[in-house]
Amino acid sequence: MPDISLRLHKDMLVLSSPAIGALARLGVDVEHDTELTILLEPETIEEVYKLESIAAAQCMVAPTRNITPARLAHAGMEGRAADLAKISLACVRTLSPQHLLVEIGPCGLPLDPSSKASLNENRDQYVRAARLFAEEEFDAFLLSGFESCDDLKCALMGIRKVSDAPIMATVVLDADGALACGRGVWEDALAVMAEYGATVVGFETAAGQDEACSFAKRAVAVCNLPLLAQLHVGERSARQQGPTAENPYYCADTMMAAADALRRSGVQFLQATGDATPAYTGTLAATVLGTDALLLSRVVEDEAEEAPAAETAVSEEALADFILAAKARVDAALAKGTELFED
């Protein structure tokens, strides 16, 4: 697989949606049985990723989010960490992805930032998790689901203690750009990411397209690292006929405008999270297919100087035709795949 570092600030890339959503739709009790399913039914995991591959995600995210010792202990999987790491990566490798990411989520331990012992205990969780992949081939770690700067700092320090692999780090933001924990804002998290060795900085939000683009522009203003945007899909319902504040990404087609707008705002990496299906991944991939990430300096220039109206209209019309044609190809490919998941 090509070195993902060579593509930073260059190609637009899409990450596969989290496997946990697909497993839930298959009836798996994801709160308690995700790791058991990986160990006992790896073919089910392979089917999940097969559709993400058909949807053309360039970066496949391994189902290792709960790989920290504390999370595994909670799931009754103490002592199975090495097996889970190996099987999780093997399930994704069968599809020969362009890039393979190892996801690690918050360990969940209580954290007292004023206590050195507490900080060291949390940091050790990520040291032990990262060591599981010391002999494995993958492109980058993905730290996602973090709600506070303190947790994120421990994770970055822990991984950097044992690995020099690229790290994509994201935090959960509300509609105003505040961290989900209620302490700190987006810029605080960016400062931590930059100081403690993140290669790609990012955010996850359930807020709408305009707010997400605002977060991207705020990042570009203070940081020159590549940017990842994770758009959280709420619980989908056939009764919902349009976007709402609670779930602006109510159907896969909403990803089309969001992907284009985020690219124009400086984002390079895109992912649909939450209750997203492969159709969401496919729409993101179709929208940015063959496009380059905008240089961050260009984003700043575009903010200061608007393009002529006539030229912009032609550009948007051509882009819309291109996106629709690409999406049709992805939809056709998905139709040929298994029908395990709702479109």
Short description:
This protein is of the alpha/beta class. The protein is built from 13 helices and 8 strands.
Q: Can you walk me through this structure?
A:
The chain has 343 residues and is α/β, with parallel strands linked by helices. It has a single domain, classed as Alpha-Beta Barrel (TIM Barrel). The chain has helices spanning 19-25, 34-40, 42-54, 69-74, 81-93, 116-131, 149-162, 186-195, 209-222, 254-264, 278-288, 296-304, 309-336; strands spanning 13-14, 59-62, 99-104, 140-146, 167-173, 200-205, 227-233, 269-274. The protein has an eight-stranded parallel beta sheet. α6 (116-131) links the parallel β3 (99-104) and β4 (140-146). The two termini are 29 Å apart. Mean pLDDT is 89; it is low at 307-315 and 338-343.
Short descriptors:
about 350 residues, alpha/beta, TIM Barrel, eight-stranded parallel beta sheet, 13 helices, 8 strands, about 45% helix, globular, disordered C terminus
